[in-house]
Backbone:
């Protein structure tokens, strides 16, 4: 029998490395990350098979409805959610708000989402994410944006979609855009890649790496408007490594059933018979907003630069 | 269409006649990284999500990921019982991180109602190091796999809190906590060789797979 109660790992160990930060996202692949606003919702999410939860005060649909400045959540709420579940807990900081990120790191969240769903704190700079031990996930609408975030230290990317709408069309647009831009790089010659880096406004080294490997160096999830099992499966078929579901679960008629169904559809994303089975009798999906009906200033995906 | 492209990129079906046929449990987690390593080592790799996909394989890898999710999905889709039967029948199985948890007879700090497949006579504690801020990489001595230390990445990883009589520890941290175990055809590590370019555990596992298929032929 071998037993030990010493908390510290070996003295030569290294925390906060790129490999460790990106590694957690690798382990979340094929899974569903759910927005939760209470410990009770976090419990429902964990019981339904979420791989992680995003702790926040208001889901995007409510942020959208209530307006005003949206900020980092109350530390008490985040800690209560961390205490409730054993799966990873993520929390959102405003774009560029490095002090909110410092607070989230001090609260020991597992991932920080520098998120356009909150009101930006800096309209020029994003957070220098290399300065943190806690990994970051950032949103992107296209490859250039994704590469700029990775260059700043993001360890995971999520395509943005349009959060809080239940309209999956923007999520579709962004994941298609990112994958098609990756495919274009793969077919380019060296000399064309210099120009591509300029056009993408992204570092040449990263552009070259994508051209050679044919994929992002970090995990790519999809977010923003996913409301049904079929939505989640479609994102997976379009090449996402996993799915964020924000308002789609707890703004629906039967969150428990819908959450479990989205999890199953994400695993069996290429099996229409499973997707059909899990889609039965879920009750009402969230009432959506068509992105086309949103005035440009209310489109969250346009935040971030 | 995308799904097919992904299968090709794993090299699935490329080497059907060559190496042993190894499945990777693909309910959730970093199963593609395992498939990639196994393919590089000459195995014929397929992804396993359904009971019938288990029938064809000579060995199975349970990847890193979220153990509570793998547990739920494996029971919902009827995989857990055939898997337990296969383990009892001597199928070589290698589990990393969540996979080690799935193979442990006893799991501490599991979520309510979480079950494991069992097979390894060990007590494993989930998330033993704490949050992601405590995730780390380090070098381990693993005498069974050669003199050179192994670089190991622990991501919200489990530790083996106690090793029963039937199981053998293969590696421990400097503080003595066990992070790799073996019992017959079962192998489990708290860490992730599949994401560090480290092939020795997978080679060791494939050795078990080959030995078993060879004895079956005789």
Residues:
């Amino acid at each position: 029998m071998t037993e030990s109660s010493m908390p510290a790992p070996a003295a030569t160990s290294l925390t906060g490395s790129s490999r460790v930060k990106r590694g957690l996202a690798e382990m979340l692949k094929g899974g569903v990350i759910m927005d939760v606003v209470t410990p009770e919702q976090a419990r429902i999410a964990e019981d339904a098979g979420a791989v992680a939860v995003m702790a926040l005060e208001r889901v995007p649909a409510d942020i959208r409805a209530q307006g005003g400045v949206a900020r980092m959540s109350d530390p008490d709420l985040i800690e209560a959610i961390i205490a409730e579940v054993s799966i990873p807990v993520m929390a959102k900081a405003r774009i560029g708000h490095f002090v909110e990120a410092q607070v989230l790191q001090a609260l020991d969240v597992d991932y920080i989402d520098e998120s356009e769903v909150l009101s930006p704190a800096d309209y020029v700079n994003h957070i220098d994410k290399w300065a943190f031990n806690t990994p970051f996930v950032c949103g992107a609408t296209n490859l250039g944006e994704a590469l700029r975030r990775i260059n700043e230290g993001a360890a995971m990317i999520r395509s943005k979609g349009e959060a809080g709408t239940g309209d999956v069309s923007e999520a579709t647009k962004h994941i298609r855009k990112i994958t098609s831009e990756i495919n274009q790089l793969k077919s380019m010659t060296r000399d064309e890649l210099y120009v591509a880096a300029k056009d993408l406004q992204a570092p040449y080294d990263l552009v070259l790496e994508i051209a050679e490997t044919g994929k992002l160096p970090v995990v790519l999830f999809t977010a923003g408007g996913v409301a049904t099992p079929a939505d989640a499966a479609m994102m997976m078929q379009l090449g996402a490594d996993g799915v964020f579901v924000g308002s789609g679960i707890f703004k629906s008629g039967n969150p428990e059933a819908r959450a479990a169904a989205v999890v199953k559809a994400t695993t069996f994303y290429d099996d229409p018979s499973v997707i059909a089975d899990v889609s039965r009798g879920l009750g009402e999906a969230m009432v959506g907003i068509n992105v086309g009906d949103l005035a440009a200033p209310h489109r969250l995906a346009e935040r971030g630069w | 269409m995308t799904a097919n492209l992904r299968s090709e990129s794993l090299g699935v079906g490329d080497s059907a006649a060559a190496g042993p046929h190894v499945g990777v449990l693909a309910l959730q987690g970093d199963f593609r990284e395992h498939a990639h390593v196994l393919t590089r080592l000459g195995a014929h790799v397929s992804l396993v999500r359904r009971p019938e996909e288990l029938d064809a394989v000579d060995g199975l890898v349970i990847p890193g990921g979220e153990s509570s999710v793998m547990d739920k999905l494996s029971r919902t889709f009827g995989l857990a019982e055939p898997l337990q039967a296969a383990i009892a029948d001597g199928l070589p199985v290698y589990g990393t991180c969540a996979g080690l948890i799935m193979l442990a007879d006893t799991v501490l700090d599991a979520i309510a109602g979480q079950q494991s497949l069992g097979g390894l006579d060990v007590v494993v504690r989930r998330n033993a190091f704490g949050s992601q801020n405590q995730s780390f990489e380090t070098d381990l001595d693993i005498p069974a796999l050669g003199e050179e230390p192994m670089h190991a990445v622990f991501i919200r990883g489990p530790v083996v809190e106690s090793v029963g009589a039937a199981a053998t520890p293969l590696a421990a941290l400097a503080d003595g906590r066990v992070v790799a175990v073996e019992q017959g055809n079962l192998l489990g590590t708290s860490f992730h060789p599949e994401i560090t370019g480290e092939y020795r555990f997978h080679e060791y596992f494939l050795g078990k797979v080959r030995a078993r298929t060879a004895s079956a032929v005789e």
Q: What stands out?
A: Chain A touches chain B through 54 residues (CB under 8 Å). The longest helix of chain A spans residues 169-186. Confidence is low (pLDDT under 50) at residues 1-10 of chain A. The longest strand of chain A covers residues 89-94.
